[in-house]
Amino acid sequence: MTSVQSSRFYMKRALSLAARGKGKTSPNPMVGAVIVNQGRVVGEAYHQQAGKPHAEILALHEAGPRARGGVLYVTLEPCCHSHKRTPPCVPLLIQSGLTRICVAMADPNPQVSGQGIHMLKRAGLQVTVGVLEEEAQQLNAVYRHWITTGRPFVIVKGAMTLDGKIATRTGQSKWITGDQARQDVHRVRSQVDAVMVGIGTVLADNPELSARGPKGGTGARAGRQPVRVVLDSRLRLPLKAKILQWVHEQPTIVCTTVQASPKKVQMLRERDVQVWVLPQKNGRVSLKASLTQLGTKGMSSLLLEGGSTLNASALHEGLVNQVRLYIAPLLMGGQDAKSLIGGVSPKTLEQAWRLVNPELKKIGQDWLLTANIDSRK
Question: Which of 101, 248, 251, 261 is deepest in the core (most CB within 10 A)?
Answer without folding.
Answer: 101
